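Troubleshooting log. The previous structure file for this entry was overwritten by mistake, so regenerating from the original sequence record. Sequence copied from the archived sheet and checked twice against the printout by T.R.
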Amino acid sequence: MNCKICKSKGKRTKAVIYIRHHRLALCEEHFISWFEKQTQRTIKTFRMFSKKDKVLVAVSGGKDSLSLWLALHRLGYETYGFHVSLGIEEWEFSRKSLEICQKFAERIGRPLMVFNLREEFGYSINEIAKGAGRKDVCSVCGTFKRYIMNKVCREKGFKVVATGHNLDDESALLLSNTIRWEIGYLGRQHPVLPESNGFARRVKPFCFFTEKETVSYAIVNGIEYMETGCPNAKEATSKLFKKALAMLEHEMPGTKLRFYKEFLKKGRPLFERELKEQLVLKECEVCGMPTTAPVCSVCRTLMKLKERC
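Regenerated output below.
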């Protein structure tokens, strides 16, 4: 199969990817160009940030986050990488993830900030979850990551955090929340979570790209990334929703994109109106971060852990 754009110019260049829902075959050069233009379009459409902003890019060492960092860097944004080292020893996951992020930061010549969970809190994420009597490590991990990112943004003056969530992630989350009728989550699911109450703005520039497209961008750009997923995500229910959507996508190309885009256009506004009045946040009595309770969730978890130990 030949590149559609090259063909229109009278050239015959082999395509490196075929995007079924767009009926678009592209060579390496035109795929990279298309991918970065689409990224810029999403940023502009949702007014995520501008060239004046310092953008903190959350990088895990995976294909999506590193691809995002590269794309934003090439588009001329002032980017800073941020990695949370979780202390996951299985498969040497955390050590390898950190090394990959450090190598990539050197490659593009941008600074990388690292938050070491064990050094800062005294425990790995698995020890925190186990010690606090929590079986859902992923949920605990998400809570701590959000807390840490907001804390760093507050201390370093960042107003926006960019994450590498792709269309597969967003459509699976949407399906999960719809099946459970999580009104609050459905009302808040959006490519941009606005800055408010001391929390940094969170944006998802890759929300319309499939996993196939982001991994292809990583490969053609020679990005070294963690090919194995997090050991703690073995039992993640999101995999079931992704599998279900993949089956639909195979039979009806474009299903995931239509599902998500139509939700943003027609569904989310309805759920957004159902949300209760914005919660009043106050400072945590222990760490000073915004919270609805006297003591925030992270501090309560750490206090419970210390009591048990």
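The CA atoms of residues 167 and 209 lie 5 Å apart. Archived copy saved in two places this time.
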